[in-house]
Amino acid sequence: MSRADAEVRLREGQANVEARLRESQANVEARLREPWSELATDSETAFARQRGGATFGIWVFLASEALFFAALFLTYTAARLANQEAFAAAGRETNIVYGTLNTAILLTSSLTMAVASQAAEKGLFRRLTLWCLATTAAFGLAFLVVKGFEYREDIEKRLVPGADFALSQAPAQIFFGFYWVVTVVHAIHLSIGIGLVTRLTIKGWRDVGFLAENPQVEVAALYWHLVDLVWVFLYPMLYLPGRSG
Amino acid sequence: MSEGAGTPSTEASRAETPGALWRRNLWVWAALMALLALSVWAAYWPYGRIDTAVGFGIAGAKTALVALVFMQLKHASGLVRIVATSGLFWAAILFTLTLADVLSRMANR
């Protein structure tokens, strides 16, 4: 092989490698899927990703919360299946007026919370958002006040499990054991929600730009709705059994 | 967030007003209140177990309304929907396996 031949081959080889490199660059762009292909991005996309990350995170937490309450609900279901008459007798003793009023309060608070979240998401209507957040917290407090009156009545009616328990059927104590545990756990959740919403209200009131497009509003809202939904299931469990008997 | 089909997203793309925001959510609240009233009434029907089923069925309907509209699952991305469903999925396994045991013991007593 002559020297000139060798040089030509070498140049051909280099050109080949370069072509392959260029091709693989194009391939990389084709194979990279969203969101990895556009890491350097405009602010609108960055806002959408910020919101997407927050929404995803809170939903993972809410799914674990759903399982936490599902375990409690399952305990209730098993105990109720085994002691149907005692659970009907115990269910008749809870105050359906307080229970229904509190369900209505929480469902209405979910409306104001949803409007606050959607208004903040668009970055519009700061006053509407603030007003709705404050109303939501107020509804939460109203729920706790009604619950307090109900607890007082329950204690006066000796519906606390123990030696002094009012009902003769022993399994009715299982019902009220569940009643106290689950309503207190729910009230703790609701208190945390009131704290979160109050914080957003105060910060949004002091800082004009705080609420607009802030994913914290949506995260707090999703948590609030879950606490509402837990109560939606507690309502037929605690207040509706044994009413027709 | 994926684009949802249907009226709410087209409403949102127009110039949003507080009125439109309320209208989009108020009907859900009205439906929730109607369902609550129905479940109180149904609890006093003299049918025993059917009352219980209606009570929990209404709770499920309320949950669907709140989750789809208030929690915006209707317009959420596939990833968020999978996460939301996964909680229910594992809970369903928990209920199925435990109740299979409880109910078979009750049937064989």
Automatic annotation (TrEMBL), chain A:
One of its GO terms (cellular component) is plasma membrane. InterPro entries: Cyt_c/ubiquinol_Oxase_su3, Cyt_c_oxidase-like_su3, Cyt_c_oxidase_su3-like_sf, Cyt_c_oxidase_su3_a-hlx. Residues 53-243 form the Heme-copper oxidase subunit III family profile domain. It comes from Methylobacterium frigidaeris. Keywords: Membrane, Transmembrane, Transmembrane helix. SUPFAM superfamilies: Cytochrome c oxidase subunit III-like. Coiled coil: none annotated. One of its GO terms (molecular function) is cytochrome-c oxidase activity. The keyword Transmembrane helix applies. This is Heme-copper oxidase subunit III family profile domain-containing protein.
UniProtKB/TrEMBL annotation, chain B:
Its main location: membrane. It comes from the Bacteria. Pfam families: COX4_pro. The keyword Cell inner membrane does not apply. It is a multi-pass membrane protein. Keywords: Cell membrane, Membrane, Transmembrane, Transmembrane helix. The chain crosses the membrane at residues 26-47, 54-73, 79-103. It is found in: Cell membrane. GO terms for cellular component: plasma membrane. The keyword Ribonucleoprotein does not apply. This is Oxidase.
